[in-house]
Amino acid sequence: MKFNETLKRPAVLLWALAFCAVPGRLGYYGAALYKASSGLDKAAAALTLENAEAKALAQEVRAGAEDAAFFSGLMELYPENKGYLRTQKAIAEEVDVLRKAAGARLGGRLHIAVDTRANKLYFKKGLRLLWAADCSVGRGGTIRDRKTGRSWLFATPRGEFRIITKIDSPAWLKPDWAYVENKEPVPPPQDPSRKVEGELGKYALDIGDGYLIHGTKNEAALGTPVSHGCIRLGAGPLEKLYKAAPTGTKVYIY
């Protein structure tokens, strides 16, 4: 029994030492694993950041390539060669000559210019622009009266005109085409129903051949070609023009 007791104590001691050592080793390995895991997380984050930066860099490179292609195309359209530059210089010189000729012809006088493509009216003194305004010119197209065979072209004529008369509070004498367009019977020429008050605005400038510069009830459409041939202006610019342009003022429509 003593022998067994003697052997038991060292055995228990060894067992206890072994048992206590395992948690120590486990704690050591656990700490090492945690440290390694943290390192992996940092590495993954770094890779993600590098991936984002690489993606952004790729986008910049791609955008740069697209810009280069665009400007290369422009260079093909507008080559910087001597022939091209000589042509531009010649055009600039020709325009300068024409401007001087136009200025000499105008002689610093007041005149009206109407750009039918841009639907713009310019009031100028010589070559100097005093002011500009949106206008509406003829919409184009024709209308035909099947009964009589007559037709009307809704276009503003080009050329040189002048203010023949200035009319305060004009009344619109409704022409035949207005009835034909609305599919209404055409009344006799002197029929009172032809007279429509307020349709032309407060003022009108007669430039001949049945064409007027007048006002409109539809100012929202100014800047677009919607008239039947006359030149429409807003109330403000029309009043300025009526007061500033005397009878005889030249009107250039192009």
Describe the protein.
Strand 4 (142-144) and strand 5 (151-153) form a beta hairpin. It is globular and about 70 Å long. It has 3 domains: 24-78; 79-107; 109-253, L,D-transpeptidase catalytic domain-like (Beta Barrel), CATH 2.40.440. 46% of the residues lie in helices and 23% in strands. The chain has 4 helices and 13 strands. The longest helix has 76 residues, at 2-77. By secondary structure, the chain is an alpha+beta fold. It has helices at 2-77, 82-106, 176-181, 235-244, and strands at residues 110-115, 120-125, 128-136, 142-144, 151-153, 159-162, 165-168, 171-173, 195-197, 203-208, 211-214, 231-233, 250-253.
Reported CATH architecture of the largest domain: Beta Barrel
The largest sheet is: 9 strands, mixed
The total number of structural domains is 3
Average predicted confidence as pLDDT: 78
Query: What is the 3D form?
Result: globular
CATH homologous superfamily assignment of the largest domain: L,D-transpeptidase catalytic domain-like
> Strand fraction band?
15-25%
Please write the CATH class name of the largest domain. Answer: Mainly Beta
Structural class: alpha+beta
In whole angstroms, how far apart are the ends? 134 Å
The CATH topology of the largest domain corresponds to L,D-transpeptidase catalytic domain-like
Q: Treating each run of at least 4 consecutive H or I residues as one helix, how many helices?
A: 4
